Amino acid sequence: MAKISQAKIARDLSAVTAEKVFGWKDVRKYAGELIGKKQDKAGRWRKAKVPAYTSDPMHAYAIEDRMKQLGRWDRYDRELSRIAKNLNLPRDWATPEQKSRAAIKAVGK
In the chain, is it the N or the C terminus that has fewer CB atoms within a 10 Å radius of its CB? Predict the structure, then answer.
C-alpha cells in the first residue's frame, strides 16, 4: 500500500473545502500549487491560488465567517464540537484541518 503524505492530505482537503464551502470551480494542482476559479465581486470567474484552509490558521478563520454567511453556523459548531470532544480537546483549540472537516460535513448535510 502506498503511503500518503500529510501535505497531500492537507492539499486535497483544502481543495474540497474550497469547492464545497467557498464555491470555487475547477480546483486542481498546477506547478505544485492548488489553483482554481472563484467569483469576484462583479460575479466574473477569475483564476486564483487556493488558500491553505487546512494548514494556515488565518485562512481557517474565513471558514467560520463563511459558515455564518451560509447560515450553517449551528451545524458547523455541532460538528466541530463533536470532533474536538472525540480528541478530548476544547472546541476553541481545534486545528485548521478539523475546522475544514467540520465545515465540509456541515455543508454536506
Answer: N
